[in-house]
Amino acid sequence: MTQAIDVHAHLAVPAVDALIDGHPGLARQRQIDAATLGPASLAVNVEQIAALGPRLVDLDTRLAAMDAARVDVQAVSAVPLPHAWAPPDLADRIVAATNEGVAAYCAKEPARLIPIGTVSLQHPSLVVAQLRAAADLGLRGVQISTAAGPDRELDDPSLADFWAAAEELGLAVLIHPWGCTLGERLNAYYLFNSVGNPTETALALSRLLFSGVLERHPGLRIWSAHGGGYLPSYVVRADHAWAARPDARTTAEPPSALLRRTFVDSLVYTPEQLRHLVAVMGSSQVTLGSDYPFDMGVDDPVDRLEAAGFDAATTDAIRGGNAARLLGLAL
Fold this sequence. Notes:
CATH architecture: Alpha-Beta Barrel
Order of helices and strands: EHHHHEHEEHEHEHHHEHHEHEHH
CATH topology: TIM Barrel
CATH superfamily: Metal-dependent hydrolases
Distance between the termini: 11 Å
Largest sheet: 6 strands, parallel
Strand order of the largest sheet: 4-5-6-7-8-9
Strand content: 5-15%
Radius of gyration: 19 Å
Structural class: alpha/beta
Number of domains: 1
């Protein structure tokens, strides 16, 4: 049986918290998040982060949770808080501290933990060097947000060198949202996450598909959290636009075909939704994902995969074979 590889799990990096503590940009980001969350969700988040602290840093707690979930290997990325406000020098230090912290943590259990780093996409002049440094540290990929700061989308021409370098180095690019640019329209009922995150991911992926990034870089390995957000559930609308309108006919292949060149995780909760996701993406493009240790994640990703009732080959691929291809691992 293929090893179970959870591609979606997070780690707190205290060295980064120390770097940014007291910075005005962090205070502004927290104000934005508070307004978007609304008071009720903010209060719950503050309480939960305090309770989650040990699970985000303690190795034994993580390994015990993995064992209980029947997860053999976990790809570990930092908590996806946005630092797009950081100026170049600080951004570079945040990236270095994050990548070194994740690498050191995973080195304590290298057979079970795979390090995933980060880059500062808001400063395109820095990202290629950061990617090369990540590769030198032995990281298997980098986690990015759904945009490269407030004024730059992922298809911005200034990021062309980033995508080329990620393809050249064989580093996976993991797209993980944080909230949503819909702002205070989401300030109740935890819409910040339940609507905001999948909306942001659908938008980010759509810009990559229609812009031709995947056609220009056929070796690029892109993965997105939470089942790819809303896009796989309604990519047929994107295909219709591509077929019906000249302004959307920007690629040789339709969006659905390009989407199937990317990877997503299995974090869609129900057997029915997972079967639909696999029908859209193909059995070779879905990986296991738990979102450890957050409450919007699950603590039984293998059980949920098995409950979907796939054949043995599909189950093995999602359990670990696809993640091994994504991250360049030898099974």
